[in-house]
Task: structure prediction
Amino acid sequence: MNLEWLKTGIGPLKDLLTFLNKEGKTSDVLKKQVIRELRNNLNIFHNAFLNEVSADVMIDMLSNETIKKGVESNFKFNKLKSGSIEPYHVFDDRNKKYIGWNAEKLIEKIDEKIEELKNIKKMNGNSVAKVKNNVSLMLSNLYYRMKLLADFIKGPK
Result:
């Protein structure tokens, strides 16, 4: 799969991954797990880009299990970062539409997209190779949402 869209986002990703490792050292177990899942998912994109991994493998590896656990236990995802996304959190033009959103709303969209990708794969013989959906765009949107969440958590305030 062509991951050219990821080229511009790889540079700042290493700093975000380092930050998420540090941020994951909290006594709040579910918060720690959500940050860990975000970090691991971003790492999947990073390594898929470096190793030219197929969309099918990426989709299989992406996880939203901790988000599901959080929903079940009524976790307040705004614990990740209070407030809302401000223009200074947004480093990619495509994410400007999320200005004003909070962590909980962004997590819901991330969860929704992971579920959608996994369902599309299941509905099509366990492969997205021949689907009519633009899976590359869907993965790209998911990546930039996750990166925005990490930038938001890291950012000032």
User: Anything to note?
Assistant: The chain is about 60% helix and 0% strand. The chain has one domain: 4-154.
